[in-house]
Design goal:
Strand content: under 5%
Order of helices and strands: EHHEHHHH
CATH superfamily: Nucleotidyltransferases  domain 2
CATH architecture: Up-down Bundle
Largest sheet: 2 strands, antiparallel
Structural class: mainly alpha
């Protein structure tokens, strides 16, 4: 994992936009899971988590990860206070599922997809708390 993350500036307003995307991805992930589309549910859950992480770091730090790998988001999240550390824990579980869902030929088991949606929901809920605290 990198010690320093490459970043881009991001405003609180952009953080709200990232939260909106995260909520949309999460809703689609939950719908996909309910309809037995486990690959889509998993992929959408990962994207919900990534956008929620960007919402948290935008709101708390005025920046978001901008490196070639999503792993750099962990560095920023862990610097974004207790909420960021909590979100990083769940994002660490989600990100390894990205390649599995999007590039591997095998299906994603329902139990794995359900876990992914649950982890994403935790990151999105945390991001919502962080963004709501700005108002």
């Amino acid at each position: 994992m990198p010690r320093h993350a490459r970043t881009r500036r991001a405003s609180a307003a952009q953080g709200r936009s990232y939260l909106g995307k995260a909520e949309e991805f999460l809703a689609a992930a939950q719908e996909s899971l309910d309809n037995g589309r486990t690959v889509a549910a998993t992929s959408l859950a990962v994207h919900a988590g990534i956008n929620a992480a960007d919402a948290i770091t935008s709101a708390r730090m005025g920046q978001r990860a901008a490196g070639p790998g999503h792993d750099e988001a962990f560095v920023l999240l862990e610097q974004a206070g207790p909420e960021g550390k909590s979100a990083a824990t769940h994002l660490r579980r989600l990100l390894p599922l990205k390649s599995r869902a999007e590039y591997d030929p095998d299906d994603v088991p329902r139990s794995t997809a359900a876990k992914a949606v649950s982890w994403a929901e935790k990151v999105v809920t945390t991001a919502k708390r962080v963004i709501d605290a700005l108002r």
